[in-house]
Inverse folding.
C-alpha cells in the first residue's frame, strides 16, 4: 500500500547541511550510502560531524548493500497523531541494515498487517516529488 | 559526591487547576502559581533571589521578575526537555547548595490544551534548534513527526523483546486513573477507567492506544527551594532533596534512541536511579512510592525495570492486575494520578506529588513513605529526585 501524500500540505524535506549532504546527494542518485570513518572505518548513521569512536573528521560515503531486516515499526492510524500531509494509515519502520546501522523509513507497498519484526527488506527509491527522492523499503525474498 | 543531602529543601509549591482552556496568558499563570507557592512556603517575593524556567516556556525570568516586583536576582536560567521537572529542581538545589542563591523559585506554565503549540512537524519549518532539526531530518520526511509515533516505535520493540501484552500494559493507565479518581485537584477526579475501557480505546499509533497517551492540559506549577537553615523556620514541613541526578548516555535522542544497541531500554533512567540510590545509601527495595514519567503509559514498565523494582523484561507482568503498583502495593505508582490520571503538566505535577508524599498530604498517602522518588524524561535525557523529611 503506497503512501498517499495529501496535495496542498507541504512535504517534509530533509534539512541538508555540510554534515549530511553526502547522504542526501547520493539518495538523489538512487544510491544509499552511510558515513564511514576514513581513519578507523566505523560506519555510523545518522551522519555526524566526526567519528564518535576516534574523533576523526575524515569521512567517506560507503555504499550500502541496501538490505536489512525490520527492527521495529508503527502504524499511524489516527490523523491527529500523524503528519497531516500523509494520509493515514501509513507505516514507519526502523530497519536494521546489514552494515549494522539502523535506518528510519517507510515500506513502499506492504501494509502493517504484512509486516513483522525480523522481516527481510531491501531499499527502493521513491520519487516522492520531482525534487525529492526518499529511500524506502520493500519485502526481500530470502 | 554525596548529592544535596542536607543542602537544599523544597519548602513550598503550588499547582494551578488543570483545564482545557485557562483563558490566561502563560505569564499570568506563572506569576499566580509563583505567588501561591511562596504563600505556601510563608515567604515573600522579596525573599526570592533565583528563578529557574523551562526553555520552551514563554514566560522569561525578566518578565516574571518585573511582573512580580522581584529585586536582586542572583541566579536564573533555563532547563530543557522532558526531564526538566526534576532537572529544574536539581538546578535550584545547585543554586542554594553553592551559595549562588538563598531562595530559588522553579516555575513552568503551559497552555498545552488551548494554545496551538509547536509540534515537531511545524518545527521542520525552521522554528527550532539545528541539532534537533537534524534528528527530525531523518524522521520527518518519512512521516515520523509526533511524540506518540516515536514512543510507539520503542513500545513495539519492547513488546517484541519482553513479550509484554496490551492486557498487561493497560494496567498502568488503569491504576493511574484509579489514583487520580481520588484526587480532587486533578482533571480525572471521580473518573476511573477499567481495563476493558483501555482495551476498547482506539489505536492512535499502533501499538499505542489513546488511553496510553496523557492528554494535554493548561496549567502551571511552581516550587520554592531554599537552604535547610531557612527551611526550618517556615510554614510547611520541609522536604529535603536527598539526591538529584541527570543522565544523558551514548546516542540519547528525543524519545527515539533507535540508533543505539538496545532502543527498547531506558538507560538514562537506570543511571538516574542508580545514582540517586547510591548517593542516598539506599536500595530500590527501600523505596515504597515513586512518581514515574507516564506521559506515555507503556514506558512505565520499562522504568520499573531500569530502577530495579522488578527484573528486566518483567515490568509488564509486574503491572498486571495493578496490585503491585497501587497505593498499598510493593511500589505505589503515581499516587496523584500522574500525567495519565491527574493531568499532563509536562511532569511538573509528578514532582509536586513526590513532595506531598513526604509532607504527608497526598490524597493517596503512603503511610510508610520515608523516601519519595520522582523520575522525569523517560525516552530521552532523564532526571530524578529522591526526597525525604529534613
Amino acid at each position: 500500500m503506497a503512501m498517499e501524500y495529501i496535495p496542498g500540505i507541504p512535504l517534509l524535506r530533509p534539512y541538508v547541511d555540510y554534515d549530511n549532504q553526502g547522504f542526501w546527494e547520493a539518495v538523489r542518485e538512487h544510491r544509499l550510502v552511510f558515513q564511514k570513518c576514513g581513519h578507523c572505518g566505523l560506519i555510523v548513521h545518522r551522519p555526524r560531524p566526526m567519528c564518535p569512536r576516534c574523533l576523526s573528521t575524515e569521512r567517506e560515503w560507503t555504499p550500502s548493500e541496501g538490505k536489512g531486516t525490520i527492527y521495529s515499526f508503527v502504524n499511524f492510524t489516527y490523523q491527529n497523531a500523524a503528519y497531516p500531509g500523509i494520509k493515514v494509515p501509513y507505516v514507519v519502520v526502523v530497519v536494521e541494515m546489514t552494515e549494522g546501522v539502523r535506518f528510519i523509513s517507510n515500506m513502499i507497498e506492504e501494509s502493517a498487517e504484512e509486516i513483522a519484526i525480523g522481516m527481510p527488506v531491501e531499499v527502493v527509491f521513491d520519487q516522492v516529488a520531482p525534487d525529492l527522492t526518499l529511500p524506502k523499503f520493500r519485502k526481500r525474498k530470502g | 559526591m554525596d548529592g544535596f543531602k542536607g543542602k537544599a529543601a523544597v519548602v513550598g509549591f503550588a499547582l494551578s487547576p488543570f483545564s482545557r482552556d485557562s483563558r490566561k496568558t502563560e505569564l499570568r499563570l506563572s506569576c499566580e502559581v509563583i505567588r501561591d507557592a511562596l504563600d505556601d512556603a510563608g515567604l515573600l517575593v522579596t525573599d526570592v533571589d533565583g528563578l529557574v524556567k523551562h526553555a520552551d516556556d514563554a514566560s522569561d525570568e525578566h518578565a516574571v521578575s518585573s511582573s512580580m516586583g522581584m529585586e536582586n536576582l542572583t541566579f536564573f536560567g533555563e532547563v530543557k526537555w522532558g526531564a526538566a521537572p526534576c532537572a529544574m529542581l536539581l538546578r535550584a538545589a545547585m543554586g542554594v547548595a553553592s551559595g549562588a542563591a538563598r531562595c530559588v523559585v522553579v516555575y513552568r506554565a503551559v497552555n498545552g490544551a488551548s494554545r496551538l503549540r509547536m509540534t515537531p512537524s511545524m518545527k521542520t519549518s525552521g522554528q527550532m534548534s539545528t541539532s534537533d532539526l537534524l534528528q527530525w531530518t531523518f524522521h520527518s520526511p518519512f512521516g515520523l513527526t509526533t511524540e506518540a509515533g516515536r514512543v510507539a516505535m520503542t513500545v513495539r520493540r519492547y513488546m517484541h523483546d519482553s513479550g509484554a501484552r496490551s492486557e498487561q500494559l493497560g494496567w498502568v493507565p488503569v491504576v493511574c486513573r484509579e489514583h487520580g479518581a481520588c484526587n480532587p485537584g486533578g482533571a480525572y477526579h471521580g473518573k476511573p477507567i477499567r481495563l476493558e475501557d483501555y482495551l476498547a480505546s482506539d489505536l492512535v499509533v499502533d501499538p499505542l492506544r489513546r488511553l496510553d497517551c496523557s492528554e494535554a492540559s493548561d496549567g502551571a506549577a511552581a516550587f520554592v527551594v531554599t537552604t535547610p537553615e531557612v527551611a526550618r523556620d517556615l510554614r510547611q514541613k520541609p522536604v529535603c532533596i536527598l539526591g538529584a541526578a541527570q543522565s544523558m548516555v551514548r546516542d540519547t535522542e528525543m524519545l527515539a534512541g533507535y540508533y543505539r544497541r538496545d532502543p527498547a531500554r531506558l538507560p538514562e533512567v537506570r543511571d538516574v536511579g542508580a545514582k540517586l540510590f547510591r548517593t542516598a545509601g539506599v536500595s530500590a527495595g527501600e523505596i515504597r512510592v515513586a512518581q514515574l514519567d507516564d506521559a506515555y503509559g507503556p514506558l512505565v514498565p520499562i522504568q520499573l525495570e531500569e530502577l530495579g523494582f522488578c527484573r528486566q523484561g518483567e515490568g509488564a507482568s509486574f503491572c498486571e492486575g495493578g496490585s503491585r503498583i497501587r497505593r498499598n502495593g510493593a511500589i505505589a505508582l503515581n499516587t496523584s494520578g500522574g500525567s495519565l490520571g491527574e493531568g499532563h503538566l509536562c511532569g511538573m505535577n509528578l514532582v509536586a506529588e513526590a513532595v506531598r508524599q513526604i509532607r504527608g498530604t497526598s490524597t493517596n498517602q503512603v503511610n510508610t513513605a520515608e523516601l519519595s522518588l520522582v523520575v522525569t524524561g523517560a525516552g530521552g535525557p532523564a532526571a530524578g529526585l529522591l526526597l525525604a523529611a529534613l
